[in-house]
Design goal:
Length: 196
């Protein structure tokens, strides 16, 4: 039962992380609070990959619900071992979703935002790699929306941090389920031998 309580606590920990990932992704669509940029498609292409909504959000919510329902699974299956083995698949799904969120967020951060410059709408930092993040004087190339570089950096960094935490939590549960599946039958055999 201790393993089930641990899995449930991990499920509870994933819910706020997933919600924050969804909110951060949705905020990327409205830099400077402007709605017209979505209509005109003046957003970086990576925003449309929905890394926070799909990968770090909904996928992780499904994983969290699976972790939280392990107690019901154990009651219906009759044993904690089957429930813990069953938690490994949702953990892998969660790892895939959070990994997707991390990779797309990192690519978006490396490319930089799409903004209005002296040459029109373009991504001025696209070929500069991560160097532009440390040279604040170059951020003024983006005329509109105001503070778009800071906006993108903040939200994408939040998604990177949250997806890393989600990945670690899912990895812990995967290892928890694996150890439980392998060690629990061995423990039962030893207990049986001691009682016999």
């Amino acid at each position: 039962m201790c393993s089930l309580r641990w899995a449930r606590s991990l499920g509870f920990a994933l819910i706020p992380l997933a919600v924050c990932c969804i909110v951060a992704n949705l905020l990327l669509f409205f830099p400077d609070g402007r709605v017209d940029l979505v209509k005109k498609n003046n957003l970086t292409k990576y925003v449309w990959f929905f890394m926070g909504v799909g990968g770090g959000g909904l996928t992780i919510l499904v994983t969290a619900i699976s972790f939280l329902s392990l107690g019901q699974c154990a009651k219906s299956c009759g044993t904690e071992t089957y429930a813990m083995c069953g938690s490994m698949l949702p953990a892998l799904v969660g790892m895939a979703g959070s990994g997707y969120c991390f990779i797309i967020s990192a690519l978006a951060l490396l490319e930089g935002p799409l903004c209005y410059t002296a040459q029109g709408w373009r991504s001025p930092f696209e070929n500069k790699g991560p160097r532009y993040l440390f040279f604040w004087d170059t951020w003024s190339e983006c005329i509109q929306p105001l503070h778009i570089v800071e906006w993108n950096m903040m939200l994408l960094s939040i998604q990177l941090a949250l997806s890393t935490l989600e990945f670690l939590i899912c990895t812990v549960q995967l290892l928890n389920g694996l150890v439980h599946a392998v060690c629990r039958p061995c423990c039962y055999k030893q207990e049986y031998r001691l009682n016999a």
